[in-house]
Amino acid sequence: MLVQRRDGEAAGPVFRIRVSHGANFREVVVPAQATFGELKSILVQTTGLEPERQRLFFRGKEKSDREFLHAAGVKDGAKLLLLEKPAPANLVQKVEPVIMDESMMKACEAVARVRAEVDKLSAKVCDLEKNVLGGRKVEDKEFVVLTELLMMQLLKLDGIKAEGEARAQRKAEVHQVQSLVETLDKLKARNANPFSDHNKAVSVTTQWETFENGMGSLSAPPPRVSSTQVDTDWEQFD
């Protein structure tokens, strides 16, 4: 104790400062003529943080290492805030995860671009649906053009290499496009014959999930002969 007192006297007046760090308060004693940089060196012992990772704030402002405590208005019993800077990344250990994350991010961004286009086409399909259900005649080319544009989006999705979350997003978007194409098929049939039973309209729904990659077929299956017609043909052969 005597040695510490003599050292303290030789060093001149000191400040007892409370430093808020996370949920804790650190109380340190520093020379009144010390700089914030010197205070950071003292805080290494109590926080384990290197000076370059420390950010000291007093009265809401971050202080530079060369600024003196007394010049900034720090007095005995003053309170300071200590924040941590992120630790420098270990490039050797994190090379592989970063590459994987970037790959997945690029795939998600590609799916998002397709989703934006599909959303625009979906709005047009909704407009067509309102017209058809409202009894307004729509030109066949509008159905054809929208179907072709949706098929183009399926081709884009098929070309995206994705894993994990990106693959799940791609699959969901494929189902969305397929649903829109099927809606267009039903609307086109009803538009051609508005007085027919729309529940019997031809719908292409049976051959989407046939590709090994899970993306689905990009073309509709050929029309099938109804069971009634098959029975009639067999009777003729009999």
From TrEMBL:
Record flagged with keyword Chaperone: yes
One of the GO biological process terms: protein stabilization
The Ubiquitin-like domain, residue ranges: 17-85
Stored InterPro entries: BAG_chaperone_regulator, BAG_dom_sf, BAG_domain, Ubiquitin-like_dom, Ubiquitin-like_domsf
Molecular function GO terms recorded: adenyl-nucleotide exchange factor activity; protein-folding chaperone binding
Record domain BAG: where: 107-188
Keywords: Chaperone
Name by which UniProt lists this protein: BAG family molecular chaperone regulator 4
Region spans: Disordered: 214-238
Superkingdom in the source lineage: Eukaryota
Species of provenance: Miscanthus lutarioriparius
GO cellular component, one term: cytoplasm
